[in-house]
Design goal:
By secondary structure, the protein is mainly β. It has 3 helices and 23 strands. The strands form 5 sheets. Strands 14, 17, 18, 19, 22 and 23 form a 6-stranded antiparallel beta sheet that branches.
Length: 337
């Protein structure tokens, strides 16, 4: 029969074996090789994993947050105000990965170290994707496409995110953050001011200036201008011609940069900026800005007695989310007497 001391020694040995076995098991868990779908903070990157991450290969924890680009203290709501989808792209093939915030995505060598952040605005939401601020506000965003990547007939802003050389934590997957910016659309945009008729121009060749400007209904909003057109209600090109027009954010644009078209009833000068949200001229009204965006118009006249020519200036802009075109315009008569 074992003595009391022998029992103590045997018990101590058993406890030691259990502790060592448990420690060895836990060490084994902590040093398990990286597998897709592994367990978050339980994952410790190996040297090979770290080498892969430097090339943008592996599993990542991705985050996104969006703010109002005119008021960065105002955070917009995911799914309600916007939707972010994470994709990879190999050649022309887009591969969907995840939707939303705090998700996990995996990149392979074939993805070349790029993750694509696709931003859409849900129906009924009055926001533009402020892509210029997105490019400026994300160090790892190296470019973008405006493309119909999911073949639904509608183009979206797709931002190219560099996944190479991201910070690698001691445990857990590398975390990647995307900072988004939305510009609120001014649905009540007041547009162009109204001018009185231009009288007593006379028959001598002369240049007249018109004090046009754009104005907004409320602060911290904007519109995306895509085209400007000046129309004269005559087909006689000797009577009047565009000299130049000041376009907010561009400056003075002379007649040589406009496309001139003569129809059966008028002469039109058209300056086309874009046809979509991409490259639209986003004019915005800040909280402390002067609500007067200069569009001074300069016209050269050589009128004849009795001339009374209708002049129309129209600014075309895009409705947020739908990309439908709408416009604001003003008319006046250029009169000989």
């Amino acid at each position: 029969m074992a003595t009391k001391n022998e029992k103590y020694i045997a018990g101590a040995i058993i406890i030691a074996i259990v502790v060592i076995a448990g420690y060895t098991y836990m060490q084994g868990m902590w040093t398990l090789p990286f597998t897709i779908g592994g367990g978050g903070n339980n994952f410790v990157p190996s040297d090979q994993d770290k080498d892969n991450y430097k090339q943008g290969i592996g599993r990542y924890n991705v985050f996104e947050t969006f703010v109002d680009s005119m008021d960065i203290g105002t955070v917009r709501t995911t799914v309600t105000n916007y939707v972010v989808k994470w994709y990879t792209k190999q050649g022309t093939l887009w591969t969907y990965k995840e939707t939303g915030n705090n998700k996990y995505v995996t990149l392979t060598a074939a993805d070349s170290g790029w993750l694509w952040v696709v931003v859409t605005i849900p129906s009924g939401q009055a926001y533009y994707v402020d892509y210029q601020k997105v490019l400026a506000g994300n160090d790892f965003v190296k470019g973008y496409l405006y493309a119909d990547m999911d073949a639904d007939g509608k183009k979206e802003f797709c931002f190219q995110y560099d996944m190479k050389n991201q910070p690698i934590p001691n445990s857990g997957y590398p975390a990647v953050s995307f900072n988004g910016f939305l510009l609120t659309y001014d649905a009540s945009f007041t547009g162009l001011n109204n001018l009185s008729n231009a009288t007593a121009i006379g028959g001598t060749t002369t240049t007249k200036f018109y004090d046009y400007y754009l104005a907004f209904a409320s602060t911290k909003k904007g519109v995306g201008i895509y085209k400007v057109e000046l129309k004269f209600g005559t087909t006689d090109e000797t009577k009047c011609k565009l000299d130049k027009l000041n376009i907010p954010g561009i400056g003075y644009v002379d007649d040589s940069q406009f496309t001139t078209t003569t129809t059966a009833s008028d002469i039109r000068y058209t300056y086309t900026i874009t046809s979509s949200f991409d490259n639209a001229l986003y004019v915005r009204y800040g909280a402390n800005d002067n609500n007067r965006y200069d569009m001074t118009l300069s016209v050269e006249y050589t009128l004849a007695s009795g001339d009374d020519i209708l002049v129309t200036l129209t600014v075309y802009y895009l409705v947020a989310q739908t990309e439908a075109g709408t416009s604001t315009s003003d008319t006046f008569y250029a009169q000989y007497s």
